[in-house]
Amino acid sequence: MSTASLPSTGRRRNPATRAAILATTFDVVAELGYARLTIEKVAARAGVGKQTIYRWWPNKGALVLDAVLERSLGPGEPAELPDTGDLEADLTAVLVATVEEFADPAFDRALRGLTAAIIEDAELSQAYRERLDEPMRELKKRRLRRAQESGRLDPGVDLDLAVDLIFAPVTRRWTERSGDLSPDGVRAIVRHALRGLTNAA
Predict the structure, then answer these.
(1) Backbone angles phi, psi at 86, to 5 degrees
(2) Hey, is 17 helix, strand or coil?
(3) 8 A C-beta contact, residue 40 and residue 50
(4) pTM of whole model > 0.85?
(5) CA 161 → CA 18, 63, 167, 197, distances in Å?
(6) What whole-number distance in Å separates Cα of residue 46 and Cα of residue 74?
(7) pLDDT tens digit string along 140-162?
(8) DSSP output for 115-183
(9) Which of 71, 77, 153, 162 could connect to 147 by a Cys-Cys bridge, CB 3.0–4.6 Å?
(10) DSSP run (H or E) holding 109
(11) Rounded CA gap, 150 and 161, in Å?
(12) What is the pLDDT of residues 12-29, one digit of tens each?
């Protein structure tokens, strides 16, 4: 996406200006890291006034969060998880796509910087939960609930716990830079998690 200079458009959000600011923010945080990113650097590179950015985003944490969400999810709400009728294949596809995103050096650096900021900033942490973590958790639970209804998962399984068992190992391996994050490693995570969640009957 081009980050060519665009004029400030006052208080009203111009979609092209917003897109340029977020694309520039992502490029700057991927290049310099979260700690070295400043609103001034983003404004200069995007060709907008610093006041325009502060009018739309209260601080750099909120700006970087929007930039990462825009790059990861695009505009609008997160899409539903795939439902082909094969739960293991569907969950594996989602996690393989996640690992491929983690493997992108630009995304990896941007997300690590944001993750560190979230740990330190309670307000940013709440925004992250409300805007990404909780909506994605609901989508994951919805897919697992359909599996319960079809008899693929034990109906007594706690879906919040099931989400943690399936998805948390990948995040932990990425965070700690340890463990197998290859497609085969992801398949093993899903297979073993589902072994404990599948209705034995």
Answers:
(1) -110, 95
(2) helix
(3) yes
(4) no
(5) 37, 31, 10, 10
(6) 19
(7) 999 999 999 998 898 899 999 99
(8) HHHHHH-HHHHHHHIIIIIHHHHHHHHHHHHHHHHTTSB-TT--HHHHHHHHHHHHHHHHHHT-S--SH
(9) 153
(10) helix 105-120
(11) 19
(12) 568 899 999 999 999 999
Region for residue 76 given its phi and psi (left: phi exceeds 0; alpha: psi -120 to 50; beta: otherwise): left
Tokens of 54: 């502060």
Q: Is the pLDDT of residue 171 over 50?
A: yes
Q: At residue 179, what is the residue type?
A: G
Say if CB 8 and CB 48 are below 8 A apart.
Answer: yes
Domain architecture of the chain: domains with CATH: 15-73 (1.10.10.60), 87-197 (1.10.357.10)
Q: Which two tokens stand for residue 37?
A: 């990113």
Residues for the chain: how many in total?
Answer: 201
Token code pair at residue 25: 């923010």
**Confidence (pLDDT) at 63:** 95
137: nearest Cα among 162, 171, 102:
162
Cα 88 to Cα 8, 105, 181, distances in angstroms = 48, 28, 17
| 160 residue type, one letter | D
The values of phi and psi at residue 125, to 5°, are -60, -45
Residue 81: how many CB atoms within 10 A of its CB?
Answer: 18
Contact assessment for residue 88 and residue 194, using Cβ atoms and an 8 Å cutoff: yes
Mean pLDDT of 159-172: 96
Q: What is the pLDDT of residue 197?
A: 86
| φ and ψ at residue 9, rounded to 5 degrees | -120, 25
